[in-house]
Design goal:
The complex is a heterodimer. Chain A is α+β, with helices and mostly antiparallel strands. Among the domains of chain A are: 216 residues, Phosphoribosyl-aminoimidazole Synthetase, Chain A, domain 2 (Alpha-Beta Complex), CATH 3.90.650.10; 177 residues, Phosphoribosyl-aminoimidazole Synthetase, Chain A, domain 2 (Alpha-Beta Complex). Chain A is globular, with a radius of gyration of 26 Å. By secondary structure, chain B is α+β, with helices and mostly antiparallel strands. Chain B has a single domain, classed as Phosphoribosylformylglycinamidine synthase subunit PurS (Mth169, Chain: A). Chain B has a three-stranded antiparallel sheet, with helices on one face. Classes of the chains: A alpha+beta, B alpha+beta. At the A-B interface, helix 10 of A face helix 1 of B.
């Protein structure tokens, strides 16, 4: 055993500690279970102390982190459950199946809580698109998301996409799922009641993803990763669909005590977590697990075969549970029972094969990692954007900017997803946030995800605050009021002090911004070891946000809705080109300080926009962020095929005015007759605003800097991604 | 395609790797059982590809390369190549 632990990713200290817990050396099954449950992926051993900084409780939070998903009250007896997760490493190895099984996993996390999944959101990060491998990965990942999501009948309504060489070998494939439920239908992943049956539902178990959690997710990629390939899981969306329906029927019938999905570390994880939450022990008869092929007990316990659930039910309800599952065409077998005490005990044809304390498996070790400010920061932050020489033709520059891989239309991606299924999507992908109506009510939900890794690389604390603020602006511009956050924190190797410093600063930024904007973080995921050949990705926290639209008719799109409206900028533009897309794409520079953000000002501007929309004064709204005001204005034009005449006086260089990424700005339209009310609103909240011009015609003119035909610009913007990727 | 002496044909069989879940095969298995074919124990569904190559002489190396790069997904599929 002693020589095996290293190969399984455990340190010698961890091995010693397992021996101490057990009072003996672990056998092979136990070692396999511990190695997975104590991996970074399952145990959060490096991150859990840092994550305590996050605000997680507020009056509308029904369930915060710690369960399969967070749950937030949206009034009227309804609640939403949502969470974001990563499937980065599996997607790097097999993009289609990696992305597909990522969807499967997060969807199970949602219906496990008793919620019906109604939408998915997919934030993606890839390397340089001119590299053929990047194009292969993009196509595989997008096809995997589409293939699995479309088969399930869950619309993929939003996402975001960035390209940067740092993601070359280690793409980020994050996915968020949201489900809706009656507040009375909530169920937890908990095992209680001694004597209650433990039932395994769904696909038969095979060798899928054996060692996946520790070997794939918790070690850096190197030349040997090709050898690890056979452990890739294959997804089966049709079985997942049956699981959704069967589980929701079981819950509705009140047949279950607890429900838990099987993900990383498979049965080991599901059994130990449910038992630990219920403060009970559990007995598992490993030989009863339905198999696809002959397997050893340790393989069965850690297999990550997809589309499986673990249910706990009272003995007298077991027959009904099995009947429902069989009716849906699913395997369902009683594999064990809840027992007294605190141990997880396993048998193989009557012979005891493991016997470990539940909590030691479910909670794992905790590390306080060393953090040290990286040396690169002073250098990149000392860069002064005012020293660069701007190309003079702003017209040409703006066209170039909208064809940048990071700013051009995402149509090529989202048209592969079914974003309409279930028929609730009322604002489609391509606007600031997607909007979904809630059937049977007049309410809607706005969802978005944001996270500019370049900002976070240049300043982890500030960059992460910006991610939260930008997500909030996207929700607000769509007519919503931000409710709560989920996150996926993608970082390099936490054992390196510089990486851990980035992580700590980033979480601090997330916590401070969430507190400032009065939003809880209700769920999330940490993905470490995103490195290739020892080189870390940009630290990339992705913020997923959900907002509530009280009256669905108050939703807003980014599109200029008609001619002769005033175009108004809420907020102010500063000379802030540091970390901008303009610097990156036009000048090939990733340096400078990201734009500053004053959370107090942000809050007041947000409140102004919310009130302006609610009172019907603001007719369209667009968050102004990456690409700056020039790109934002053109996006508003292209979305509605209506031009605008913009006349501004400014001390800034034209290129600064057009491409600075100053925070807390909205481009909105208002009727001329309503300007007075906007003025009164802005004065009351002490926010800066300016009238930029008016809508109309089919050209966007900005001073004598820009004069573009909207239709022609649209062609460039709309087709850029397809050209880049083909 | 027209047969001529300057052509060589290869058959490529692609199947899911042993142990890898085959959702299509599982669906067929369930359906066959539902139709009363209880004797069916397992179904694995793959692809059979016929390649016609210009010129004569063995080109198995080239065909294997095509399998690795495009025709098969070597991460989850096995393939066999034979000259017809």
């Amino acid at each position: 055993m002693a020589e095996l632990y290293e190969e399984l990713g455990l340190t010698s200290e961890e091995y010693d500690s397992i021996c101490e817990i057990l009072g003996r050396e672990p056998n092979k099954v136990e070692l396999g279970m511990y190695s997975l449950m104590w991996s970074e992926h399952c145990s959060y051993k490096s991150s859990k102390l840092v994550l305590k900084m996050l605000p997680t409780t507020m009056p509308h939070v029904i369930l915060g982190p710690g369960e399969n998903a967070g749950i937030v009250d949206i009034g009227g007896g309804y609640a939403v459950a949502f969470k974001m997760e990563s499937h980065n490493h599996p997607s790097a190895v097999e993009p289609y199946q990696g992305a597909a099984t990522g969807i499967g996993g997060i969807v199970r996390d949602i219906f496990t809580m008793g919620a019906r999944p109604i939408l998915c959101v997919d934030p993606l990060r890839f390397g340089d698109p001119s590299n053929p491998r990047t194009r292969y990965l993009v196509k595989g990942v997008v096809a995997g998301i589409a293939g699995y999501g479309n088969c399930l009948g869950i619309p993929t309504v939003a996402g975001d996409l960035y390209f940067h060489p740092c993601y070359e070998e280690n793409p980020l494939v994050n996915v968020m799922c949201l489900g809706i439920m009656r507040t009375s239908d909530i169920i937890k992943g908990v095992a209680t009641g001694v004597g209650n049956a433990v039932i395994l539902i769904g696909n038969r178990t095979g060798r899928d993803g054996i060692g996946g959690a520790s070997v794939l997710a918790s070690q850096e990629f190197d030349e040997r990763s090709a050898e690890k390939r056979p452990s890739v899981q294959v997804g089966d969306p049709f079985t997942e669909k049956l699981l959704i329906e069967a589980c929701l029927e079981l819950l509705k019938g009140g047949l279950l005590v607890g429900l838990q999905d099987l993900g990383a570390a498979g049965i080991s994880c599901a059994c130990s977590e449910t038992a630990s939450r219920g403060h009970v022990g559990m007995e598992v008869h490993v030989d009863r697990v339905p198999l696809r092929e002959e397997m050893e007990p340790f393989e069965i316990m850690i297999s990550e075969s997809q589309e499986r659930m673990l249910a706990v039910a009272e003995p007298e309800k077991v027959d009904q549970v099995l009947e429902v599952c069989h009716r849906w065409g699913l395997n369902a077998v009683v594999i064990g029972q809840v027992i007294e005490g605190n141990r997880l005990v396993g048998y193989w044809y009557g012979e005891k094969v493991f016997d470990v304390p539940v909590d030691s498996l479910a909670h794992g070790p905790t590390y306080r990692r060393e953090a040290r400010k990286p040396a690169y920061l002073d250098e990149v932050q000392s860069f002064d954007p005012s020293t660069i020489k701007h190309p003079s033709d702003c017209n040409q520059l703006l066209l170039q900017m909208i064809s940048s891989p990071n700013l051009c239309s995402r149509r090529y991606i989202y048209e592969q997803y079914d974003h309409m299924i279930q028929l609730n999507t009322v604002i489609y992908p391509g606007s600031d946030a997607a909007v979904i109506r809630i059937k049977g009510t007049s309410k809607g939900l706005a969802v978005t995800c944001d996270g500019n890794g370049r900002y976070v690389y240049l300043d982890p604390y500030l960059g992460t605050q910006i991610a939260v603020a930008e997500a909030a602006r996207n929700i607000i511009a769509s007519g919503g009021v931000p409710l709560a956050i989920t996150d996926c924190l993608n970082f390099g190797n936490p054992e390196k002090p510089e990486i851990f410093w980035q992580f700590t600063e980033s979480v601090r930024g997330l916590a401070d911004a969430a507190r400032a904007l009065e939003m809880p973080v209700v769920s999330g995921n940490v993905s470490f070891y995103n490195e290739t050949y020892g080189e870390a990705i940009h630290p990339t926290p992705v913020v997923g946000m959900v907002g509530l639209i009280g009256t669905i008719s108050n939703r807003r799109s980014i599109a200029f809705p008609q001619d002769d409206l005033l175009v108004v900028l809420l907020g102010q533009t500063f000379s802030e080109l540091g970390g901008s897309e303009y610097l990156f794409y036009i000048h090939g520079i990733t340096a400078g300080n990201p734009p500053s953000i004053d959370m107090d000002v942000a809050k007041r501007i947000h409140a102004t926009c919310i009130e302006g929309i609610r009172r019907g004064l603001i007719l369209s709204a667009h968050d102004c962020s990456e690409g700056g005001l020039g790109v934002a204005l053109l996006e508003c034009c292209m979305a509605g095929m209506i031009g605008a005449e913009i006349e501004v006086e400014t001390d800034l260089e034209p290129q600064e005015w057009l491409f600075s990424e100053s925070q807390s700005r909205f481009v909105v339209t208002v009727q001329k007759s309503k300007l007075e009310l906007i003025d009164e609103l802005a004065k009351r909240r002490r926010i800066p605003y300016s009238v930029l011009g008016k809508t109309g015609g089919n050209r966007l003119r900005i001073n004598d800097w820009v004069d573009l035909d909207v239709g022609e610009a649209f062609q460039v913007w709309d087709q850029a991604l397809e050209k880049i990727l083909s | 395609m027209e047969e001529n002496s300057e052509q060589v044909r290869y058959a490529v069989y692609i199947t899911p790797k042993r142990g890898v879940l085959d959702p299509q095969g599982q669906a067929a298995l369930q359906a066959l059982k539902a139709l009363g074919y209880g004797e069916v124990d397992d179904v694995r569904i793959g692809k059979y590809i016929i390649l016609s190559l210009k010129g004569d002489g063995a080109k198995e190396e080239r065909v294997r390369e095509m399998c690795e790069k495009l025709l098969a997904n070597p991460i989850i599929e096995d393939y066999e190549v034979s000259m017809e």
